[in-house]
């Protein structure tokens, strides 16, 4: 992790512009404060860096390839590279963060790890590193998501994790997050909470973005090798909470000539009431410890989002992305279920890569941004489609 | 004088503060429960603002919030229900809730409305201290509202001092590391923490909450603080029977001296 200074990153008070902060009840303060005080020092220590780099290389399988997608390039009329996070161990970029946080939990002397998960990818990535380190692991998952993502539930169990259903509220990701926070309140001293995205109270958004920043760090030197320059014209990434996007943008934030394209899930369409496109439908608010953009009623109650992709099915976005939206640094694009599924099939046919439905949203957005033939485009292919086989089968149009 | 200060002047010990969720069990119960609490002998009243994602609360209060929202509770509705509050209720009334609905309503507009209907203080557990100081403290003061902060067994001594400086009315002592309604009874570890805070000579009065449910736990808490707060146990009570008589019997039972 090389140090980046940018006006788009967190300030000393834990804010990205006017977003972020730590809106937490006093019961969580000591846990979060312990992390805030120690995360930079721990992450900056040579021993931590050595362990992190070693695990990313030999356990996760980094660097992931930057692959020139020839037939996709022809189709969209630009030079398109895929950053192959789908080839990470466990099938998605999520493991970059869990490897980092498990080392942090060890350094803090924690005996147990908890995490929330929606589609189950972050849960699997967390259960994986807990198994690796021999640390107890409890994963909270919405009851409805557990039914939708049964194979991932079983994967977590095989890895030795306990999967606890979140039965409150809408029984999906945001409720799993609520339950994990409650667990942390009730077990403040021996437990580390591995949040899976760039959401939550400071320092989580910054910490998770730093762990994921390896993605753009690699893109820079890989692109230099292939194209003779570090900066592409566009970087595309899907945004639920926004961790893969944060990692893909991180080293390009101050390179204003690089267009950062954030792709949100529009579900059945932004006007249907069945969408998760936060920047299109949300307003400033506070959820899960940070001030950010949030889908909510006029009365400030959080709205249940919808997307075919469980990983994008979150009513907010991280404060990192709220700031990119607010400042105009990021270009935000919405992609519907149908567009995403079509793009998933398209990528499978053109390149022999079945993407995660989340990542298929990013592919679909290639058709929504004006591209020149000479443009160099990087799409962060955040995950593979194995977990989504059932979704593809139900979709059926292939 | 703020009614909260008056309550602590009038009564030196064993103050009972009762929390309930606005709009629960029925939408129009809000004012009636406040009246019943006042008449039944509660010394302070905390009305909870329901929120879709109450992370600091256990299942009882969360379910009451979900029900209240399904009943149609909103801040506008609440303020209209409380329009004549001060014709019926004499004891101090605080509103307790998560910050997001308050921000959406407009913080200053919210405070103005509170002052208009006769609310005395706010408890906003997820409002950070530095935000409060920088953005909101002056607004509360402008409308004569007190802001109550929480401390827990894990709160550092240094932070307790800071909270004592910023709090007005009283400090809400969370009895254990838990969400609301999670733990029953009071352990020796908690007694040590109560004792430590008792001897810290804080400027503010102290009320102990979380895990207080009956005469025994109330009396125990009152040995170490100026009073105590009951939430989840009261929610369960009104869910069964929210009649004034039932509420009065419960309050009298909790407050009666231990035999």
Topology, please?
The complex is a heterodimer of chains A (398) and B (259).
Chain A: E1 15-16, E2 19-20, H1 29-44, H2 46-60, E3 66-68, H3 70-76, E4 79-84, H4 94-107, E5 112-117, H5 121-133, E6 136-142, H6 143-148, H7 150-158, E7 162-166, H8 173-186, E8 191-193, H9 204-212, H10 214-227, E9 234-238, H11 243-249, E10 259-267, H12 278-281, E11 283-287, E12 290-294, H13 319-327, E13 330-336, H14 337-351, H15 357-364, E14 376-381, H16 389-395
Parallel strand pairs in A: 4-14, 5-6, 5-8, 6-7, 9-10, 9-14, 10-13
Antiparallel strand pairs in A: 1-2, 3-4, 11-12
Helix pairs in contact in A: 2-4, 4-5, 4-9, 5-7, 9-11, 10-11, 14-15
Chain B: H1 3-10, E1 15-21, H2 30-40, E2 44-49, H3 59-71, H4 75-81, H5 85-88, E3 93-97, H6 99-105, H7 107-117, E4 121-123, H8 129-142, E5 146-147, E6 150-151, H9 157-166, E7 170-174, H10 188-198, E8 205-209, H11 215-222, E9 227-230, H12 232-240, H13 244-255
Helix pairs in contact in B: 2-13
Task: Give an overview of the whole structure.
The complex is a heterodimer of chains A (398) and B (259). Chain A has 398 residues and is of the alpha/beta class. Chain A has 2 domains: 25-57 and 94-208, Rossmann fold (3-Layer(aba) Sandwich), CATH 3.40.50.1100; 62-91 and 212-395, Rossmann fold (3-Layer(aba) Sandwich). Helix content of chain A is 42%, strand content 18%. Chain A has helices at residues 29-44, 46-60, 70-76, 94-107, 121-133, 143-148, 150-158, 173-186, 204-212, 214-227, 243-249, 278-281, 319-327, 337-351, 357-364, 389-395; strands spanning 15-16, 19-20, 66-68, 79-84, 112-117, 136-142, 162-166, 191-193, 234-238, 259-267, 283-287, 290-294, 330-336, 376-381. The model of chain A has no long low-confidence stretch (mean pLDDT 96). In chain B, strand 7, helix 10 (188-198) and strand 8 form a beta-alpha-beta unit. Chain B starts with a helix and ends with a helix. The mean pLDDT of chain B is 95. Chain B has a 9-stranded parallel sheet.
């Amino acid at each position: 992790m090389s140090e980046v200074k940018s006006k788009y990153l967190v300030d000393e008070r834990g804010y990205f512009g006017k977003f972020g902060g730590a809106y937490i009840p006093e019961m969580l303060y000591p846990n979060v404060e312990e992390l805030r005080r120690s995360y930079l020092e721990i992450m900056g220590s040579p021993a931590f860096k050595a362990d992190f780099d070693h695990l990313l290389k030999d356990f996760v399988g980094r660097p992931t390839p930057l692959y020139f997608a020839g037939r996709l390039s022809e189709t969209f009329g630009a030079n398109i590279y895929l950053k192959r996070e789908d080839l990470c161990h466990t099938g998605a970029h999520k493991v970059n963060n869990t490897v980092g946080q498990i080392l942090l939990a060890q350094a803090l002397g924690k005996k147990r790890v908890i995490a929330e998960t929606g589609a189950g990818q972050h849960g699997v990535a967390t259960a994986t590193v807990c198994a690796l380190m021999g640390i107890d692991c409890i994963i909270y998952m919405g009851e409805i998501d557990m039914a939708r993502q049964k194979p991932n539930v079983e994967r977590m169990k095989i890895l030795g994790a306990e999967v606890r259903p979140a039965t409150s509220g809408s029984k999906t990701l945001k409720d799993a997050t609520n339950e994990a926070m409650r667990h942390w309140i009730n077990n403040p001293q021996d437990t580390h909470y591995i949040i899976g995205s760039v959401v939550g109270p400071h320092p989580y958004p910054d910490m998770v973005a730093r762990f994921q920043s390896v993605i753009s760090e690699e893109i820079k030197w890989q692109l230099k090798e292939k194209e003779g320059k570090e900066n592409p014209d566009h970087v595309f990434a899907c945004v639920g909470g926004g961790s893969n996007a944060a990692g893909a943008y991180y080293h390009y934030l101050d390179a204003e000539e690089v267009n950062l394209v954030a792709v949100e899930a529009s579900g059945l369409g932004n006007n249907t009431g069945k969408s998760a496109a936060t920047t299109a439908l949300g307003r400033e608010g506070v959820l899960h410890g940070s001030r950010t953009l949030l889908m909510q009623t006029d009365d400030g109650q959080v709205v249940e989002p919808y997307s075919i992709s469980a990983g994008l099915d979150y009513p907010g976005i991280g404060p990192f992305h709220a700031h990119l939206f607010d400042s105009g640094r990021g270009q935000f694009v919405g992609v519907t279920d149908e567009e995403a599924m079509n793009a998933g099939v398209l990528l499978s046919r053109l390149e022999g890569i079945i993407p995660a439905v989340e990542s298929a949203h990013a592919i679909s957005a290639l058709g929504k941004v004006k591209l020149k033939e000479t443009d160099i485009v990087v799409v962060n292919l955040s995950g593979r489609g194995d977990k989504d086989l059932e979704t593809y089968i139900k979709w059926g149009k292939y | 004088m703020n009614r909260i200060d008056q309550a602590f002047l009038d009564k030196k010990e064993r103050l009972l503060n009762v929390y309930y969720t606005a709009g629960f069990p029925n939408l129009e119960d809000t004012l009636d429960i406040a009246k019943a609490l006042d008449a039944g002998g509660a010394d302070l009243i905390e009305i909870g603002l329901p929120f879709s994602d109450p992370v600091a609360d256990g299942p009882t209060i969360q379910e009451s919030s979900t029900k209240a929202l399904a009943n149609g509770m909103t801040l506008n509705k609440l303020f209209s229900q409380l329009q004549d509050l001060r014709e019926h209720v004499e004891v101090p009334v605080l509103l307790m809730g998560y910050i997001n609905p308050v921000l959406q309503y407009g913080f200053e507009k919210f405070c103005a409305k509170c002052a208009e209907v006769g609310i005395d203080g706010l408890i906003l557990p997820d409002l950070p201290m530095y935000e409060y100081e920088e953005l909101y403290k002056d607004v509360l003061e402008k409308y004569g509202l007190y802001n109550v902060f929480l401390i827990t067994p894990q709160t550092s001594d240094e932070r307790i001092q800071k909270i004592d400086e910023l709090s007005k009315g009283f400090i809400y002592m969370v009895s254990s590391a838990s969400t609301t309604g999670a733990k029953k009874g009071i352990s020796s570890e908690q007694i040590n923490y109560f004792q430590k805070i008792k001897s810290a000579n804080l400027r503010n009065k102290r009320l102990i909450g979380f895990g207080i449910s009956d005469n025994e736990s109330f009396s125990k808490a009152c040995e170490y603080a100026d009073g105590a707060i009951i939430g989840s146990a009261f929610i369960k009570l009104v869910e069964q029977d929210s009649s004034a008589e039932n509420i009065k019997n419960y309050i009298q039972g909790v407050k009666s001296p231990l035999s």
